[in-house]
Amino acid sequence: MPIKAFGSQEVHRRAEKAGAVAVLDKPFDIAELTALSRRVLSQHAA
Asked: Containing domain of residue 8, as a range?
């Protein structure tokens, strides 16, 4: 899950094409990161 300083649509597209589940732009909300991490972990644990 890439976390980067500057968001651009091109970076988002490349990350998703490479298999990223999500791309969070800085500054990101820690609650959003926590929820996303839990969702991804629960999907991969099943």
From this structure: 3-45
